[in-house]
Each structure stands twice: as C-alpha cells, then as structure tokens.
Amino acid sequence: MAAAPALKHWRTTLERVEKFVSPLYFTDCNLRGRLFGDSCPVAELSSFLTPERLPYQEAVQQDFRPAQVGDSFGPTWWTCWFRVELTIPEAWVGQEVHLRWESDGEGLVWRDGEPVQGLTKEGEKTSYILTDKLGEKDPRSLTLYVEVACNGLLGAGKGSMIAAPDPEKMFQVSRAELAVFHRDVYKLLVDLELLLGIAKGLGEDNQRSFQALYTANQMVNVCDPAQPETFPVAQALASKFFGQRWGESQHTIHAMGHCHIDTAWLWPFKETVRKCARSWVTVVQLMERNPEFIFACSQAQQLEWVRSHYPGLHARLQEFACRGQFVPVGGTWVEMDGNLPSGESMVRQFLQGQNFFRQEFGKMCSEFWLPDTFGYSAQLPQIMRSCGIKRFLTQKLSWNLVNSFPHHTFFWEGLDGSQVLAHFPPGDSYGMQGSVEEVLKTVAKNRDKGRTNHSAFLFGFGDGGGGPTQTMVDRLKRLCNTDGLPRVQLSSPERLFSALEGHSGQLCTWVGELFLELHNGTYTTHAQIKKGNRECERILHDVELLSSLALARSTQFLYPAALLQDLWRLLLLNQFHDVVTGSCIQLVAEEAMCHYEDIRSHGNTLLSAAAAALCAGEPGPEGLLIVNTLPWKRTEVLALPRPGGAHCLGMSWGEKFLPSPGHRPRHGLCSCPHPHLTAAPAAPAACVCSARAPADLASRPPPTKTDGSVTLDNGIIRVRLDPTGRLTSLVLVASGREAIAEGTVGNQFVLFDDVPLYWDAWDVMDYHLETRKPVLGQAGTLAVGTEGGVRGSAWFLLQISPNSRLSQEVVLDVGCPYVRFHTEVHWHEAHKFLKVEFPARVRSPQATYEVQFGHLQRPTHYNTSWDWARFEVWAHRWMDLSEHGFGLALLNDCKYGASVRGNVLSLSLLRAPKSPDATVDMGRHEFTYALMPHKGSFQDAGVIPAAYSLNFPLLALPAPGPAPAAAWSAFSVSSPAVVLETVKQAETSPQGRTLLLRLYEAHGSHSDCWLHTSLPVQEAVLCDLLERRDPTGPLLLRDNRLKLTFAPFQVQSLLLLLQPPPN
Ligand SMILES: [Zn+2]
Question: Which of 267, 383, 387, 934 fits 271 for a cystine, CB–CB 3.0-4.6 Å?
C-alpha cells in the first residue's frame, strides 16, 4: 500500500496524522487549516441589550446600537440581540458560504422572522450555512438576528459548574464573519479522525488497527492541502477502507439523535423554553439535510412551550414527526424524578404526557424515556404498562458508586409482577458524539453479550448544546458497516426495541426497584420544595374528590377541568428531576415556591366552590362543612375555626359530630353549625356531616409531670418524655408492650457532617454516618402544653448548634393510635445533616417503606455491598420495622429520606449543601412526624390509614349556604387492603358526567372487595391509567355496589357513568 518507508513507527505515524488534522498545530500547512477559505467581516453589526426574554417581534423593534467583535455584554441572565447585516462577495459564486459566529452564551439565529439555528461554542455549533452553493442570481445581502442568552450551556456557575450562578458574569462576541467553507476538506477530516479513532481504539494487537493507521498515513502522503485536486485520491483510499465488510454476527448499534434538556436546573424554566427552540431548530436543519437521521425527543412540557412560543418551529416538528424522523418518546409531562412523586402524580405524568403527544403528534409514545433520573420506583413497570408502554430506556444506574448493575438489556419486574423490557445504552451516556471510542465502548461494556446483539447509542449535546451535529451524523454514517467495528445504523427507538424484543428469550429479569447508589441526598435537600410537592398532591386530591361529589350532587356545578389540568401540569413540572430533588439553583427554587403557592391558592378557591355547591339547595344549619377525603371512617380531633381567627378543638364522630358507631359514612361530608370543643369521627371516603353541640367527650387524663418528665396517655398508647423532650418510653397500653429499645431513647436528634465528594446538593456519602453527634438538650425545657380534654401535649426547645434551634410540640389526641411531633426548626448550617432517630424494641432483618401505590422491604443490615450501598433510602408517608406480632411505624407529612439500620428508625430532616444553591434550606421549617407502635402486622394494625390521616387532615370548610342536614358518604370499600386513592372527573366524558376512580391494593395480598357508592351510578367499567375502557365491558352493579378483585399492589381504575341530572 505504502510507497514510502517499509517500516513505520506506530507512534510517529499516528501523531503525524494527528498533526495533519490538528486545529492547534501546523494549521498554516495542514488540512484543518484549509477547512475555511476566504473570509470577510460582516457589513454591519449592532446590538440591543435587555434583562428580559423578549419575543422576536418585540426585540427587533428596539433601539440597536453599533457593535463590534470583541464587545462585552451581560450580565448573567440578560439577553443581547445582535443585528447582523451581511453582504457576500460576488467572487464567492459557486462556493458554500457560512456565517461564522463565536460568542459566549447560547445563540439563536433568526432569519426572516423565524428561528433557523442554534449557535453554541460548547455544542460545537459555531457556523451557520448561508448557502450550500452561492448562485449567480442569489441575493447576496441579507439581515440576520442573533439572540444571545447570557448563560452558558450549563448555566453560569461561579468557578465550578455546580457552584451558584455568578450574577456579574460578562460575555463576549469573539467572531462574526463570512467565510467560504471547503466541504471536500471537511469530508477528509471526518475520515481521518475516524481512522485515527480506529487505530487508537483497537490498539497495537489488532491487525485492523494497523490497516486504519496505514490508510490514514497514505492519505496524508497523497493529499496536498493546497491542491484540492489531490483530495479525491485520498478520499478513495478512505472509501476503500470503510467499504470493507465483515460477518453477520456483528453487534448492531442503533444510533439516535438526542438532546437531553433539563427542564430547569442551573438555569430558570424560562431559559429552558429558549434552550428547546435553539436545540430543536438545529435538529430540524439536520433532519432536512439528512433524511435518514432520526431524533428522539422527550418531555411534553418542553414541546408545549415550543408550541406556544415558536408555533412555526412546532409545525416543522409535527411535519418531521409524520415522516418518522422526529420521534416523541417518554410519554410523560417531564422527565420526572423516579422516586419522590406519589403514585397518582406518576400516573398524571403519563396521562398529561400521552394525551399531549396524541393530540399534537397523532400518536402516543411507546417507550418510557428517563435517562437521567436518580432511581426508579418499583411501581413504574405497572404504571408504564397501564399507560400503553412496554419499553424503558435509561442509563443513570451506570452512575452507581458501589455496585455495577449486571445488565444493559433485561426484563424489569415491578412490585405487582408487571414486566417491561429495559435497556441501558451500554456506552453509559445519553450525550455521545459518534466517536470510534464510544462505538467500541458500547460493544465492549455490554453486560448482556450473547443474549442480545443490539444496543442504543444516543448522540448529541444536551442542555442547550443543540443536540447532534452534522459531523456526528457523518461519522456514524461512515461507520455503518466496516470491518473491525460494530455495525452502526441511524435508527429509531422503535427499531431498537423491536430488535431486542425479537431476541428476548435469553434475557434475565431484575425484580424490584432500580436503586441509584448515588444522589441519595436528593430525598432531603430543599425541604420546602418537598413540602410543597406533598402538600399540593394533597390539595389536588381533595379538590378533585370534592369537585366530583359536587358534580354528582349538583346540577349547576361545573367541574373545573381546565383549571385542574393547569394546576396538575404545574405540579408535574416541578417534579422534574432537578427540581423536586432540590438540585437546582435558587432562581428555580423560588419559581417552584411560586408555583406551589399558585396551586395552593387556586386549590383553596376550588375547594370552597365545591363546598358551596355541596351546600346549595338542601335544608340545614349554616356553619362549617367537615369533610373527610379518605375512604374510611375517622375518629379525630380537629381544630375548628372560630370567629376572630381563633380555633377550638373538635372531634369528628361520624355524621353530625355525634358518637354513632353504627353508621359512619366514608368519603363524606358533615356540616358543623356551632363549632365547639367536640370530638368527631368523620365519615370516610369523602364524608359530609354536620357538627352539632358537643357530645359526651371521651377525654383522657391530662399529661402528668413528675421530675421534669411528661407522660401522655390516651388509653391506646402511653408516651413518656424525659426532661429534654426525648422519648424514654412508648407503650401500647392494651398489651403493655414497650416500643422503645431498653436503655435507649427515641426522638433523638442527631447531627452529621455532610461533605460529599462533589455533587453537593445531590450526594450524602456513607462516611457521614461516622460523624454522628447526638444533639443534647437541657433538662427542664420540657413543658406541658394542652392539658386534658381531647388533646394532650408537651413542648420543648432544643438548641441544635450555636446557630440553629428547634422547638417541638409532642401531641397525643383522644382516639389516636400515634403520637405526633410538630416540629419547627430555625436552620442555619453549612454541610450538616439533621436526622431524628428512634431505636425500636423490635428485631428484624428488613424494614418496610411506603412507595407509590404500595411498599417494599429493604435490609436493616450491611451484609453485602448491595445492602450497605442503601445506607440512605427514600420512602413516602411511612416506614415500619416489625417483628412477629409487633412493630413500630414512623410516619411523616413531608419527608422522603429515611433509613433503618439494625433496630434504629431514622428520618432525614434537613441538609445544608451550598451548591448549586448557597441558600438552600436556610431559615425556618415546619414539619410533622409521628410514631405508631402496633400489635400484629402493620397492615392489620392500620399503619397505612394512619399515615393517610396524618397527610390528609379533615377539612373544615366554611359552608356559605345551608349544609346537608345529615352526613353522607359517597364511597366506601369493604376491604382494608384496598385504598380508594383518587376520585376525579374522567378526562373525556359525555356531558362531563363520568367519574374516574382509582384504587389499589395496599397490603400486598390478593383481595376481593366491594365498592359501595351512594352516587347515582348508571354504569361502571374498568379502564387503564389513560382512562381507556376495558374491552370486557361494564361491571355488574347491584344495590349500588360492585365487586373488584385485586392482586398484590395492583392499581385499578374505574369509570362511573353518572345518571343524568333529574331535570
Ligand atoms: Zn437531567
């Protein structure tokens, strides 16, 4: 092959080729130096600077001032609009001409009022093709606008990527010129770089590697950069090499364009709107130029933003979706966190997402797409399946710190046994660039060699880098089938998964959650966001339930479907994997808090509206409407508002606030004309009842105080607090069973040093456990609060550190099986972690944690590396440690981080990371946790309803009109194992008179149950989570009840068609 020296030195030959394509060395004579030919400055440059993100039409009418290359602009989060007037020299006729633009920040080119391409240095997008070939008659003068956002691809961190943004950062434009582009040089550069990649990637033990290197060397020999007529010979050498094929057994790589855009992270939501436009308009250009190029795009919310802000671009995306080049994936509203959102929230992610995709792109997504989320709930397979999705793609588990996950392609089996086909791109990335190294890694790292012969390869810069580049596409096209390398296809998710499904017979199965052994601090960081999330999930639950009841009972009531959809979408947006996790900058957190406030205020208005509708038209006293939004009977003390803003304690005793053990409705309402100190068990599953004068109160003895300690006793449990507020004893009165381990104390606050390796807001490391310091209080701080009546309480202050303090009210109510700890913390720390511990007099190798629509067990020991890597885990409303016949449950109203090691239950309360938000979690916090000792299993003891009660307090709504005279209940379920989780109006229903009910089996058992309703139901039919009717047809409905059969942790949805209104 080679004419010159017979002997070639590996290193010098390799470096010779490298220098030939180098952008740094010898550009005066090498090939790279010839990529661009003649150049000339733009005719005129002017700019306009604004702190706002203006629409194009508004921006271009502003006052533009002369500008020049080298100018600085800023600061961070501002926008600089450049008007670029250019004239292409006549001499360039026949040539390809580019606008070369280099500036800090992220740019978007506008031409004739439409966005046409993104410009980002970090995304290797620094030139815009003005014309492929300048024609003699083409206009040579035009005006473009470049909208430059004053933030980098990854925000504007001061000094480090995840540091808080630098508000003073300035930006600079360093190049704005026209240049002739030499396409033939470019092609040779792509080939030479690939040949170098093959030589390096396959190494000196491999024959093909030498062939690649010698081919490249020979290309350098024959190619004179100054003489384009020499290029075809070099090109032919490359084509010969890449045209050499090999056998059929080779692995196939499915290369798909992608651009992972974090919906908010190191930049605010509003900037993401523009990131989407910049990225996708660039993708449109690539799809136009490369008909075989396919781009996978997730997150309905981002597409919705583009639809409303850039309708022209949206129409183009729809066009390319029809052609199959633009492929919506994921099916969810955003790429949400996979751990923290409730089960219902996860359902809504899919419901809102799939409906949007169907509406805007004509079909729903077939793949769940969550490449960058910090762990995956074991309920996801069931939720996916019931949302029309059997395929799942992620890669985040490659970030595991301790154990490497054993598969890249496998069946993932969820809590209920549902299976989906899961694929992790073996290259462990969602931002590949099409290099030979990545292609080889994809094959080498595949953990399922021999089982499957296909892999995904996602290429493109994310987060505003504009996604893939033409160079990436060209590289991958060149590698389609060449000896020595895997086959590469520009492919689609559909083709990849079909290929995997075709050979799934040998795949292994992974059962249970996909736990990420990293980022475990995200269960706790930014407590206010977490609290907002939990609270808004409750509000929307209550609003939907009450509005549904109002719809069923009042002919006048209009279900607020549109507003509820907006509020849900707002909540779902903030479940994005860098928002609810607390790993965002302060700007985003502030926006999230505003969103939660919106949901709260609208939610409260909607609750009042529904209450008003429920009260209308029925005789009865005016006053308060007491509403139980849970599907079971409740006997609870509640605070009733009194004139003047004061409250008094009341107790719900079923309907009418009278003790009435026989008939207590579920999901019901009651009205309360004369708020009083009264006890009341409210009717379940949304019960409405009216409160009358106080009944015979089952009050308990007041807390007793001896030697500075306080004992609270309600006849069910007896709580003893030491003089500093720690729990020295917790006894289940009936059995005399002690729940606190001998010689220990519970309610022990502990402080840890919390300095991770890098990802500050994200990570808590195993070694933090070695820095445990109990926070010791001062004796004598414990005081009795409420005494006697239906509630007893004690409170104390605790100095956590010189800067942080805590106060707590420990509350025990009549009839309540758990003791509550209302906690207020003033938190001013740096890199500390606050938890509270309860050593239990319980021994078990595993603890139970609530997850979406169910629960799962995790070990309490550190036997294996898989066990100890779960030193900090997540849970929803409760966790439990039980041995045979007895256990202790720890409930919470807004926390997610937890652990049980040995017999110690620990709830994670507050962290103090400083990046990317230096102010995160500083200030005042309020939260409640509760402790419930129980006999028997947690299922039989009612831990699950107790945790619901803590999270869904009885509502006492002002009744504007006459409230229903008698309490009534809309729904009840006969089995304690089955929870009626959601009642809402069905998405599509004739005249709006169809309700959707969602129930799940919560005990982990096969259960039959009867669902009873007092509503006028005409027809009942099962449906999936997208509310599509089950083909088996209507259920048998007799005497207002119907039978349902559940498998463990099964979620079932039901459509109830209501009878038309009487008139
Ligand atoms: Zn992400």
Answer: 267
